[in-house]
Amino acid sequence: MTMHGTTFVVNVRVLAREASNWRGIFVDLSGHAPEPATGTAATDAWERVQAALLEALRAREGVIDISDIVDAQSDAIGPPTVSGVLLDFPCVYAFPTESMSSAAAMLSSCSLSVHSLECRRRDGVDNESELAYGWSIPSSLIMDDDARVKFEAAVATWRDVVADCLRSLGFCASHQVAYTAPGSNRIAF
Q1: Across-strand partners of 27?
Q2: Spans of all domains in the chain
Q3: What InterPro entries has UniProt attached to this entry (predicted)?
Q4: Please, what is the Cα angle at 14 between 1 and 6, to 5 degrees?
């Protein structure tokens, strides 16, 4: 599957999940500050992404370009939202395409917790660590206790699944969390 020049290998199981079974959270960037998208907003974001992807899968075989389908829903979801779901990030930013500049500015002004997995070859040929995969969440995001427990479990699952995949390919993996100060990031979508 491709979208605006980026290629994704799609996990069909992710597409088949219902919003209530998805282990991550959507973060709404349409207001004055990042906040968890809850209830209808979260369900709507999930359903829009899922509908776009399922439409693409039904319409074509082989490599599927979903750019036109995502662009047709640009009033509700943007490419970063679809990318976050396809990459199975525990935190996915939900906002329409037309709000990409303001969403980037909002995240640039926030302190962020940046989660990443670094890897290096197990055989010792090249011991340089490389960034394999990463995502962020605003440090100030307020979640109730139940949501925080669910989110922490999602992070642990994400870390374990990706680390296991990297290990199966002959890499050692380590989970890193960096905390950035407000204004120290320049986010661009």
Answers
A1: 36, 93
A2: 2-99, 105-180
A3: DUF4504
A4: 25
